[in-house]
Give the backbone structure.
Amino acid sequence: MDLYMRRVPLAASEDDVKVELAKILHKPPFPLQPLLNFDVYLFKKYDSRGKAGILSLPTEIAGNDFLRAYGGIGVLIKGAHVIFTLSTKPVNQERLAILNAKPWQDPQTLKAAKERRIQESRPYQLTSYGFGRFLHDGSFSSECVAEGEADIACDLERRQVRFTLRKQSQPSYPDRNQDLISMLNMLSIFGDRQLGTTTSVSYPPSAIDSIVDSHVADRPTLFIRANAFPIFATEDFINDRQESMRLQGLIPDVPMPAGCFNLACTFANEADKGAFIHACQTRFRIRHNSKAADVLIHEMAVATSPNLDFLGDLPFELAFEVEKAITNWTLSPSNAQSLRGTLDDLCKTHGEAAAPIFRRFISTLEDEGGSRKARRRWRSRRRNSHAPTTLVDHLMHAIELYLEEQQRPRGRLVTSPTVGVSYSYHMILTPTRHIFEGPVADQSNSVLRRFGHHECFLRVSFQDENRSKLRRDLEMSITELLAKRYRPVLLNGCVIAGRRYHLLGYSMSGLKEHSLWFVTPFLDDEGRWLDAQTIRESLGDFSRLQHQPARLGARWSQAFSATDPSITIRLNEIQRIDDLKSPSGNVMTDGCSPISVEIAREIWKANQRTKRRPARGKIPSAFQFRLGGAKGMVVQDPTLEGRVVCLRPSQVKFEADNRTFDIQSTSMRPKAMFLNRPLIVVMEYLGVSTERVIELQDCSINEARSIRTSFKDASKVLQQHGLGTSFHLPTLFRDMSSILHLKIRDETHGDTNLYNDLIANSLHCAETHILRELKYRAHIAVPGSFTLLGVSDEWDCLQEREIYATVHDEKTGLYKEITGEVAITRSPQIHPGDVQVVTAVRRPELEHLTNVVVFSCRGARSLPSCLGGGDLDGDDFNLILDPKLLPQVVKTPGEYISLPIKETLHPCAIKDVVDFIFDYIEADLVGHIAISHLRYSDLADPSCPECLQLAQFASHAVDFPKTGTPVRFQDLPRHRSRTKPDFLAQDGANVNSDQYYNSPKLLGQLFRRVPVNDWMPDEWDGSQSPSGGDVIKRALRGVGLYGLGLSLDTPSEELHKEMYYLLGEYCRQLLAIGTTHTISKSKDTYVSEAELVSGTIMANWSDHHRRREAVGAMNLQTHELVRAVRAEMRASNAASEEEESDDFSDDGEWYDDEDDYYRESRLIAETFKRTWAAWCAAEEMLQVEPASYGAQSFGLIALGKMLELINAAKQLV
């Protein structure tokens, strides 16, 4: 209830009014347990009679009681009687909800705490500073300073260490080369920006590794040792208005020196330094390292700009490695220049081996620099008679090691990609630096497969320093940063390894993550000169889109979608048919068409021939595809004879000559169904049983906790959540339980109780990941419900609001015919009508279809379009079969008018597409709208005016990549308070701070029920064997291997040496993957082995979607590496090729083409001998170096393969 206050004394503040009112409201007749919460808001305008404002009370009872007691006489505040009357304005529902959710906080206590924060956050004047790098000898190279008054503070309000520079003038780069110094002339482009700007540099606590305390020439000095660049910003006065803008470095428009993200600070006195260190330690828990010896600060000599044009004369693979080493500062530009002649000789002598040799050379340099000592990484047992001293000596040593590897019986570990996977080169461009990665395993697309020459394609990603997407901010603009830092790259291209790359295109998922494809001109295998423009023109006829840049880019994107190839469709096999429409003209088959059984069989057979592990069983009922300029779904139709692919107008986006049928996904298996936050909000509003949702969450929590107590439970839960699949963990744990009869060791010991350090940490990672998903995404499994691809009823046998679905999982034996009332929805849900209740029926015409949901083509509007604007071009639909989760009421679906497509007056060129890309980066509001909707829903419900308004804006924002017409930020409903419900807190946030309140709704209850502790894998503590090898060996001996034709005989010296070398190469490649997927992208940090094995990342990322993308890329790369290792473990005569084909299925069935019992027996025995040797090599390495990076996971790969072979041998017997 809101009460209007008037005649508030001019001298009174809001806190003064609260203190006086608390003396009344915290006594009877008002409630005392808990104390009544209330709020006071004073208007900015006032007159001679005093101020006015609002007193907000949580209930009408409290408001009426207060008015009866004090409405006539008022309340005495600072000598004046303040008058209260009932407010005539609508109640502020947001403020009311927060009052009811949060407990009373005494304003005097808050004021005192605020004053303490201000005191601890006060800036400390610096007498000198410098951004720079720590060198190998422990000294500090100060490389970037600018004149001005500098200070540093522990900013508790923003939770950041904040460096501020005022009145900056000409910058100083004491050790920068002349080429960079000349860039200072760019300062003339400041335009209307006035001198005397303030530059702020902000380190989030997670970006600071430690504070290094030292004295330099008796001056109180410390160093902020960071693992990533901070955020640079400036506050400028433009046209007499203050604006905050992101910068790319300390000086506007001038890039930072490579690796200079550390900061040296000299304080005015020891007291200031001590107070700052204390605040960092107590408030941010930043590690304090008091150096025993003083750190020397020095300046590098100014060098002339080295000429790196020679990189263009080197093969790209080698040139890329050289430039990567320079950007990582493993090599200086001058050092790289000094190696020019040696690199030329390397290419002439060793050809394609030059790049891997150079990688080995760089790895050696990094080891000697001491940057990776903490990893205890694998090292060769080979010792040199003399250590290399010069760069050339190091390179010669790398060549020797490489040649030695080539002499091994099976050569080096080569991870050749499977079809559908390509090895690509990446560049990440942040505001302060560029990062090179590659070659790394990546999802392939039709462009890469069609044109080959993968080294000529480059994937460029725009990211912030913390690996989140660049986003506009209410407090800070990124417009100038985009214009100065990123726009020239898209318009003019970028020079990488001596080649200029130009923008080519993007996939729609790539655009959402700000990831684009670039290409450098090249000659194809037929002698044609290809560049970005000719490749785009070859994709199809886009003449109809020449005035629509956003839609043009969207159509190009079809060729960049991640797909697998199959067959080429003949022109006479394509049949054009019309879309089915309702009487009112609505399209009912949007994106879907039939395909004949014969050609579906051909497509599937061709696709599976490219797989290392072909799927068995029935052909999928439906395919999500790309075919030239067409996209969408095709569903099998037995009534079509011969080889026929039908295409509808809703599927054909443009005409193209390419007729390869590329597969994006299939209906081979059903997917599990999970709840999420938007769905739970809508379900709660529609009357779904909240008790049932809580019960399901409790089951998920218990399952997550069970994985560290039982291998059998661990196998089931990991399989359900898709964790550990790259390392075959679900199968490994199942076999460890069923074949070896091992148990996870708890407090008891025994012959079958196993403690394996990597397994323990991997399971802890998996548990933490699942609990995080439950807490921060409400990712709750719904057993017995499914997620299926949607297709149209081509047989016209379903009535309006009827569906058909049969679920069949051949791997698990699941078969379920769905009938009766079911709830159906599609993510993301934002409108009350996005969950509908329909009737599932059986129809003989549809009995050939499994793992799809068939929608009726009758009625005025298609059901998919009622579910958040869905269609049938590949959308997944959630079928909820749990009766307790069915809505009690069903609301009318939302229906929105699309925004017009943005057009240009002239035929658009690449510049217009670039303009759209930057519009998208600045105005992509899908995530903001989703969060805002959750906030308003928590304060009211999804049917409130603000939520319905946001639902319409969400529809427009989702279409923005295709229409080019953005949602305007200023049109969105504005929250009156910055306080958010607790369930919107990010990983690691303090939910007890005044930024959050306890949500009374279901999402708040679910959030607070999940126990999650911040946890990171620990290194082995040395208290026991890290692998439990003795227990595993005893268990293997108890299997009865002799009767299966298998043995645990000591491997021959030759075989042992081969596997030991394989282990070393595996460890090196695994470490390379580990360093790729960190937040800091620093060569000195890496993802733990347990995270790689479990397929999780434990670090707190500010961008959940970016972390999920990183996890996906990481798992793809580890999958390819494990596949290659398993191939090397196979007997040499296992197949004509040495690639991994995984002849052993998950259930242990052997399905080699040669039906010869004795041959198969010998093959199993020989492969078992090799895997046993590999396991022994890992155990030996763990005896010598127990905490070595990669040895334990190598042993698990070998153990998993051995157990599969035991199963295969049992099948033969």
Observations:
- The CA atoms of residues 422 and 449 lie 9 Å apart.
- Residues 1157-1184 form the longest helix (28 residues).
